[in-house]
Design brief:
Layout: H1 2-8, H2 15-35, E1 42-47, H3 52-60, H4 62-66, E2 71-76, H5 80-89, E3 95-98, H6 99-107, E4 112-121, E5 126-128, E6 144-147, H7 152-163, E7 172-175, H8 178-187, E8 192-194, H9 199-207, E9 210-213, E10 222-227, H10 228-233, H11 235-254, H12 256-267, H13 271-279, E11 281-282, H14 290-305, H15 315-322, H16 326-331
Helix pairs in contact: 3-11, 6-14, 6-15, 8-9, 9-13, 12-13, 14-15
């Protein structure tokens, strides 16, 4: 439309300028065509109970309306490790994970970019049964702890142990998926569990489980990540997805009761469990920032000290390569 208006205005220019103006318009048209993005045939996203905004987006179908030329497919993630596996295997184009888990994946060779914050939640803590005699981190020495490797609860556990002068060799870590970790704790098969909401909230309310150790600063924030290839080939699609997430996020803030009910219905857990989870979930700051880079860098030493990344990897450089705020800046309204 703009190019057409420019072309029609040529008649008002002196003859000496018409040729030059016409050439400029042709160049603009060529440049516009060169940078036009072809919509992908299919856009694949994960959804997760630990990312409640994803449940809202999936429920209302707003992304399907925003991407009429693409098939929108959804895959369920039980934890950050599954989400990042989907990205690596091509099973998803957009993956929801804890930010520190994304750092770990990138440091170990996964070419991903984090483009959006879906929540900032205190979603993990170290949990013990209601009758447990354990009272502190130090009491975990020599004990069995259920934790899903590669997820924020797992990394939270390592940071918690380090704060007490312990490491993973001082305990027995059982690598169970989050729901299985809860079951193991409640059956008495493990002494503690690196919990994750909503399973953690459900265990508190339904089994009387107790949070042995909480530290909000050891919880990393939740990010949406894409592969570098997808970021280069489909930047407009990324902006569209972020705008749809923003529509869902704004809905959650405007409809807290309906939001809690939707989370309860989707996760098939009681409403009081969903409400407890949401009291620990901050949805007010979706934009990646320098503070997020600093927070990830502060957590980086545990990845090195516990030999979770390849030897010689510069984790701070990895974080700089991973976090990409530009998509959010282009798509999130202040």
């Amino acid at each position: 439309m703009r190019l057409t208006l420019l072309a029609s205005s040529l008649t008002r220019l002196p003859r000496s300028l018409k040729v030059l103006a016409a050439a400029c318009i042709a160049g603009l048209a060529l440049n516009s065509t060169a940078y036009a993005e072809t919509a992908p045939k299919e856009v694949r996203l994960d959804y997760a109970y630990y990312s409640p905004v994803s449940l809202v987006l999936k429920h209302f179908g707003w992304l399907e309306k925003a991407l009429p030329d693409s098939k929108v497919s959804w895959v369920f993630s039980q934890g950050s490790n599954r989400s990042l596996e989907y990205l690596n295997s091509g099973g998803a184009d957009f993956g929801s994970s804890a930010s520190l888990s994304a750092v770990l994946a990138r440091a170990n060779g996964s070419p991903i970019k984090s483009v959006y914050v879906y929540s900032r939640a205190e979603w993990t803590a170290l949990v013990v049964s209601k009758d447990s005699p354990l009272k502190s981190i130090n009491d975990l020495k020599g004990k069995k702890i259920a934790a899903t490797k590669g997820t924020d609860p797992y990394l939270f556990t390592l940071r918690a142990l380090a704060s007490a002068g312990l490491n993973k060799n001082d305990v027995e870590l059982l690598h169970l998926q989050h729901p299985d970790g809860r079951t193991a704790l409640e059956k008495g098969d493990v002494d503690a569990w690196a919990g994750l909401d909503p399973h953690m909230a459900a265990s508190e309310l339904q089994a009387g489980s107790r949070l042995l150790y909480r530290n909000k600063d050891f919880n990393s924030y939740g990010v949406i990540s894409v592969t570098e290839t997808f970021a280069k080939e489909h930047p407009q699609t990324i902006n569209t997805v972020i705008k749809a997430y923003e529509q869902a996020r704004r809905w959650t803030l405007e409809h807290p009761e309906e939001f809690a009910k939707l989370l309860a219905d989707e996760s098939k857990l009681p409403l009081d469990v969903a409400k407890l989870q949401l009291t620990r979930t901050d949805l007010s700051a979706p934009q990646l920032s320098d503070k997020d880079i600093a927070a990830s860098q502060a957590a980086a030493p545990i990845l090195v000290s516990e030999e979770l990344v390849k030897r010689g990897v510069d984790v701070k450089q990895v974080i700089d390569q991973l976090i990409e705020p530009s998509f959010g800046k282009a798509s999130i309204q202040p």
